[in-house]
Amino acid sequence: VFLFKFINRPTVFQPLINEILIEYLNKFIIVYINDVLICSNNITKYKLYIYLIFKKL
């Protein structure tokens, strides 16, 4: 059972985060509902990607 005010949270979050991270979307991040997946080949790039995402948010 969901409270009425929580029903549309994922449908609001998904487009918002897509709009904010559009320049990185499908380059090194994938956004799905409430998850942001960061893809990288090595730890140095991974740290850079995390920095860029946090800076953007």
From TrEMBL:
Protein name: Reverse transcriptase domain-containing protein
InterPro entries: DNA/RNA_pol_sf, Rev_trsase/Diguanyl_cyclase
Gene3D superfamilies: 3.30.70.270
